[in-house]
Design goal:
By secondary structure, this protein is mostly helical. About 75% of the residues lie in helices and about 5% in strands.
Length: about 230
């Protein structure tokens, strides 16, 4: 009764993939953090250059504590860069900073995928908190309507993560485009920045794989119990 075959076949391999993706990102980030741009531009300066490129003058750039805690806050129009990115002139710092400025450009242009992602975020938080518990409880007490509610709520998590992929890929494309066109990095240095952005994108793909695996697991288990 308590042996979860589908967890070991579906979820565990997906979870391992997610761990590998995270480890790969940290490895690439560490390596590229020790390779410094010959132009000497910092992450904060690079973010400002991207904002200038897109004609954005109402977004500020601030340092924030943590590692890989970089993000754009559309509510306050602030790009927050981690300590290892804000004042560093490493290849990793410049790539990440430009990526976050790419998100600011998306909001400025009302990029449809990011508007969709933000629209479903509130219900996604509910689905993340309640979806799995409700579905599992429904399976164990053999109450299918509760399982359905849980599955619907949890599926919103997968939908959110799916909507996140084009947002992240587009922000990286914007970053690479500006880096190249305004000559922030040399052609050789751009290769390293692309590696960092690709590694970061893989973590989003892995998160989606984990969500889909969990969803399939619950669907198969509920059908088996029925």
């Amino acid at each position: 009764m308590f042996y979860d075959y589908y967890y070991f076949v579906l979820v565990l391999p997906a979870f391992v993939v997610a761990l590998i993706a995270q480890a790969y990102l940290k490895s690439v980030y560490r390596k590229m953090s020790t390779v410094f741009s010959v132009r000497g531009i910092t992450g904060a300066q690079a973010a400002h250059r991207v904002l200038q490129y897109y004609g954005i003058n109402n977004v500020t750039v601030e340092p924030v504590a943590g590692t890989l805690s970089d993000h754009f806050d559309p509510r306050s129009n602030v790009i927050r860069l981690s300590q290892g990115v804000y004042s560093s002139n490493s290849i990793a710092a410049i790539g990440i900073a430009c990526h976050e400025a790419g998100h600011a450009a998306q909001h400025n242009e009302k990029y449809v995928p990011i508007r969709l992602r933000n629209a479903i975020l509130p219900v996604t938080n509910i689905g993340s908190a309640l979806g799995l518990p409700l579905a599992i409880i429904g399976i164990f007490i053999n109450f299918f309507p509760l399982v359905v509610i849980g599955l619907i709520l949890y599926s919103l998590v997968a939908v959110f993560q799916l909507a996140t992929l084009p947002v992240e890929f587009n922000a990286s494309r914007r970053a690479v485009k500006v880096i190249d066109e305004v000559d922030l990095l040399s052609k050789e240095e751009q290769i390293g920045a692309k590696k960092v952005l690709t590694a970061a994108a893989l973590t989003y793909v892995a998160a989606l794989v984990v969500s889909i695996a969990n969803l399939l697991r619950l669907i198969l288990r509920s059908n088996r119990r029925r």
